[in-house]
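Hello forum,

I keep getting stuck at the same step: I have a sequence, I want structure tokens, and every attempt I make locally crashes halfway through. Rather than fight my setup again tonight, could one of you with a working pipeline run this one for me? It's a single chain of 292 residues.
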Amino acid sequence: MVDLWTLGGLSWRELLKRTWRESWEDAIFGQAARLAFYHFLALFPSLLLLMFLFVKSSDANSAVRHTLIDALRQIMPQRSSELIDNTMSQLNARPHTGIGAVTAALGAGWAALNGTWAMISGLNTAYEVRERRSFWSIVFTTFGLTLAIMILSLASLGIILFGTYISHRSVFGFRVVEWVVIPILLLLAFALFYRFGPNLSDREWAWSTPGAVAALVLWVGSALLVRFYFDLFHSYDRMYSGLSAVAMLLMWLYFTNAAVLIGGELNSEIEKAAEHQSGQRQSSTTNASGRL
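Reply #2:
Ran it on my machine without issues. Output:
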């Protein structure tokens, strides 16, 4: 197994230089736009399903809604979080059941699966491998990763709800739960994509890699930078008027998805450097044995 934490013998400067060059050549920002589109389509049907799950309990519905919005306000532009808040208010006022819930499930599932497939495609490009898995293997992988991300998302929401509960007793305890446990879940999600997304049948599982850590830092950093930019500068309000909240949300999704793909590129560069270094050592050993 390649020890990614040695960086393949590369310095951080050289690694970042290679990662940026490969990210540009692999057009990961175009792939990030594709991901942003699918995740945007999946977001609102998913909110409808969430409201449907808690429609029978007004207290649970209200707690989930306020907890989710409070969390989103910390990382999203204000207009985008307000858009989601308003949408959830409308869904809560006119709850859908029966065919509405089925339609929401189908819409959310279709968009989420396409988003996962777009991520798999982007990581194949990052790792410079061709997709040679069978159709059913790809379908199983796509469904499995989508389901895993859904479970981790619900776990994050549950942790935030628990943090809200303990915040009445300890604000410090709430912050520990929110800013320690949730990043660990994000790391796990990124590691799942990096291991099972690209066609890398000869790789072993490693839940924490430099790429996953870099993706986490970039994800949080890009989310906060986009939020601060839109909150401080209001040019999008003038350019897009009533659609500014939608445009801001798409840009936020664009940059955060790009962060995940860049993490994959970083892991790929480390692995290529490590394999090259290993090949040189084997060649030196062979030459030394021949001289003996």
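Residues 244-291 form the longest helix (48 residues). If your local run keeps crashing, start a new thread with the error log.
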